[in-house]
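Lab meeting minutes (informal)
Scribe: AK
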Amino acid sequence: MEAYLAMTISPQPELPWLSVIVLLPAIGALVLQLFQENLNKRENVYRNIALGFLSLDFLLILVVFTNFFNNNNSQLQLIERYRWLPSIGLEWSLGVDGISAPLVILSGLITLLAAAASWKIKNKPRLYFSLLLIQASAQSLVFLSQDFLLFFLAWELELVPVYLLIAIWGGKKRLYAATKFILYTALASLLILISGLALALSGPEFSLNLTDLASRSPSGTFALLCYLGFLIGFGVKLPIFPLHTWLPDAHGEANAPVSMLLAGILLKMGGYALLRFNVQMFPETHVRLAPALIIIGIVNIIYGALNAFAQDNVKRRIACSSVSHMGFVLIGIGAINSLGFSGAMLQMISHGLIAAAMFFITGSFYERTNTLSIPNMGGLAKVLPITFALFLATSLASLALPGMSGFISEITIFLGITSQEGFTSIFRSITIIIAAIGLVLTPIYLLSMCRRVFFGPRIPALAMVKEMNPRELSIGLSLIVPTLVIGFWPRVATDLFENSTNALASLINTFNTIAILQSIN
C-alpha cells in the first residue's frame, strides 16, 4: 500500500480554509433566515445574498487551490482534523487531492451559475435560495471529507435540498419525480452505510478515517460484498443501468437550475465515490471486476442512446444522453490504468459543463415557449438565433466534436482501454466497437433534436418570442467557453489531476494486474 500511503502526507494548514469553503454557503443560508418574509421585492434580496455568498465561496476555492495546484497534487493537502464526537469515532476531517479538487471547482462554478439562472423564482424565494446554499455546502463536503461517517452525512444531507427543490418548484408530476428520486437514493445510501461500517469494523481497531480504511486493503468474499455494496450505492447516483430510471423523471420535472445541479454535480458524486472507495479501498477486487464494470459501461452507452431516441421531451432526451455519457466514466474506471482514470476524470468535468449548459439553455427557451415537447416546437432558429447557436455548440460538444472537451475525454478513455494489456485483443476490440456505436448514435439523436426544435415547421404562437438577454448569454458562455478551452488545451484540466490518477494507477499495479486479468479472460 505504499502508493496510497504516499498520498496522505500533508502539513497541517495555518488556517482552516477547507472548513471555510464548506461552511460559508451554509452560513449564507442562515443569514437569509434573518430577513422578514414581507420584504418588498424580497426575491431580489434573497437572490443577491445567495449570489454574494456563492461568489465569495467560489473565489475562495480558486485562491486556496492555487497553491495546491502549484505543488505535487498526488498528495492529500490542507488536512484539517478536529474531534467532533469521539464516542463514535466521528471527526471533522477534510482534505483535498487531484481527484477531489477539480470537482470542488466544478461544483462551485455550477452552483453559482444555477443561482444566477434562478432569476424568476417568485414562490418561496427565501426557502429556495437557502436550499441552494445548503446544497453547495453538502456538495463540497462530499468531495472533501476524509472521514467515512462525515462523508455519509454529507451524502445524505445533499439529498434533502434536491428533493425539496424538485417537489416544490418542479413541474406537474414533481411529487412523483421527487419521491422516486429520494426512494432510489435513500435505499442506495443504506448499502453505502452498511459497507462502510463493515469495513470500519474489519480491522484490529474501529476507524472511520478513509486513509486507515484504504490501508486495510481487504480481499476475498468480504471485499467482494463491500465492493458490490458501494458499487450499487454509488451507481444509483452515477447512474448505472438498471438503477437509472429516477434520472429522466427528475430532470423532466425539475426546473432548469436544479437540472444544472443534478447533471453537473450530483452525477459526478457517483463517479468520484467509485474512485475514492471502490478503486482505492478494494484495488484487488476492482481489478477482478474491471471487465464487468466495462460491460456495464457499454450497456449504459448504448441503452442511454437508444432510450434518448424515444423521448419527445427535450429535457428527458438530454437526461438519457447523460446516462449514455456516464457509461464512458465506468469504462475509464474499468480500464485500471492512468489513461483510463484520467479519461474518467475528464469525462466528469466535461459532461458537468456541457450538460449544465444544455439544461440551462433548454430552460431559457422553455421560459419563452412554455413547452418542452419537441413536436410542439419548430422554426425557433429565426426568432432565437443566439439561443440556437449556444444550443448547437453544446450539442456538438456533447457528441464529442474534435476541438471540444467531450472529444478529449472520450478519446482518452479509448486509449486507456486499448493500452491495457491485461485485456485480450478480442475484449478490447469489442469494447471499442460497441462504444463507438454509441458515438455514432449520439449525433443522430442530438442533431435531429436541434433540427426539429430550431428548423422544423414554424409554430405561429412562437413567432414573437424574445431572444436571450445579456445575463442569460453570460451564464451560457461561462459554461461553453471552458469546454472549448479544455478541447484545445487539455492540460488546463489534466494538470489538475494527473499526479493523482498516476498514483491511483500505481496502487493498482502493486497487484499483478495483467496476470489477474488474463486469468479472468
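Next up, CB showed the second protein from the same session:
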Amino acid sequence: MSRSEPLVIFDTTLRDGEQSPGASMTRDEKIRIARALEKMRVDVIEAGFPVASLGDFDSVKAVAGTIKDSTVCALARAVDGDIERAGEALKPAASGRIHTFIATSPIHMQEKLRMSSQQVVEQAVHAVKFAGRYTDNIEFSPEDAGRSETDFLCRVIEAVIDAGATTINIPDTVGYNLPHRFGALVGELIECVPNADKAVFSVHCHNDLGLAVANSLSAVMHGARQVECTINGLGERAGNASLEEIVMAVRTRQDTFACDVGLDTTQIMTCSRLVSGITGFPVQPNKAIVGANAFAHESGIHQDGVLKSRETYEIMRAQDVGWAANKIVLGKHSGRNAFKTRLAELGVDFQSDEELNHAFDRFKVLADKKHEIFDEDLQALVSEASASDMDEKYKLIWLKVCSETGETPDATVTLSIDGDERRGYAAGSGPVDATFKAIETIVKSDTDLQLYSVNSITSGTDSQGEVTVRLAGQGRIVNGQGADTDIVVASAKAYLNAINTIYAVPDKTHPQLGDV
C-alpha cells in the first residue's frame, strides 16, 4: 500500500459540534470557523443540517458561498424534503456534498423508524438516487452502524454504492464500540462488499467511552480513508473524535499509518482557540495537542532532558501545531497596523474598516487596563466583539458591587434596554450572585443558570478573566461569554450575552430522529 495515500479529514464542528447543549453558533460565527478550517486545508466541512431551521439553512448557504478550497457538506435524513433543502443550500458551493443517512441497527429500525430491513434498504437507495439530482458527491451513513448486523450492513452498503454513493461512512453513533472490534468491522466491510472499491470508506465515532480517537485510528489502520471529527472533540454528549488528535497521530506515526493528511497543522491552535471562544467551551489544560500543558514540563528530569534534546520527552514540535515560540506582545502604544497584522497571523481577517475600528477600540480599552496583551487576549477580544455585534437588547452601562467580610454582598447595575436606561439592585451570596440577581430584577428572563465557568486567559494578576455562562430558557440552552480584567464585570457581560442570544437568535431545532 502506498505511503502517499491521502486521508480525508471531514470536519463536523459546525454540525455535530454545534449539537452540544449551548454550542449554537450564529451564521457569522460559522463563517469565521469555516474560513479557519479552509485555511487549515480541511478537506470537507460539514456546515450544518439545512432542514433543521431557517437559520441553519441560511448558515449552510452562506458557508457554501464563502468557502472555495474545501468541499462544503450538508446533512440530510433519507427523506426527500431534507435532501431538497440540502441541495438548495449547497447551490453556491464551488464543491458540494450531500450526506444522507438512515438507521440500520435492529433497535433503531424497530423502536425508532418502525421499518423493516427491506424498507430501510429501499429508502436508503431512494435517498442516494434523489441526492444525485443535486450532486454526484454523495455520502451515505448507516446510522448506529456500530450496533448493526454485519450482513445487513454489507447489503445496504452494496445497494447505495450501486445507487451512486461515493463515500460510505460507518458511524459509532453511541460510542459503544471498542477499537479492535470497530477496526475489524470496517476492514470486514471493505473486504466483503463487492463494489467497495468504488467508494471511500469513512468513520464517525462518538466519545461516550472515551474511545472516539482510538476507534477512528483503528478503522484507518483497517482501510478507512476518511475520518469525521471536530475541533477540540466538540460534539453531542461526550463529543466526537478530536480533529487535532487524529491528525497529529497520523502525522507523527508515519511508521504505522499507510496514509497521511494534507492539513496545515500550524493552524490547529488558531482553530482550537476560535472554536473555544465562540462556543464558550474551554479547553482543559491537559488536553492533548491544544491544552495549555500539552508541551509544558515541570518535572526536573523532564526539563533536563528537553533542554539537552527536545526529542527526549517531546514527540512533536509545539510550533508544528501552532504554538508560537516567540509571541509578539502588543501594548497601548501599538498601532492599528500591528494590531491588524497580528490578528491576520492568528487567522482573523476583518471584512470592513468599521469592523477593524470596532475591534481596535476594544483593544485600546484593554491596553489601558493591562500592560501586555498576548495572543490569547486578542482571541478573546475578537470573540467578545463578535458576540456584541448581534442586536443587543440589553447592554451593560454601569456596575457597582460591594463585598466585605462578614457582610452580605450587594450589587447595583444600570442597563440600557433598547436605548432606555434601567437600574436594578440585589443582594446575594457573593458578588457574582448579587450581580446576576440585580440584572434579573430588570430583565426578568425566567431562565435557569446551568453553568458558570471562569478561566484565566493568560498568566499574571492582571490577566483577563474569561467567563462562560450557560442559561436554559424558552425551550433553549445558550452560552454567553464575557472577558474583562475585572471578573465580576466579565460575569455580567457573559450573563447579558446569553440573555441577548436568547432574544436575538431564532429557535434552532436539531432533528433527533437520527444523528450520525
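CB comment: Residues 297-304, 509-514 have pLDDT under 50 and may be disordered.
No objections, moving on.
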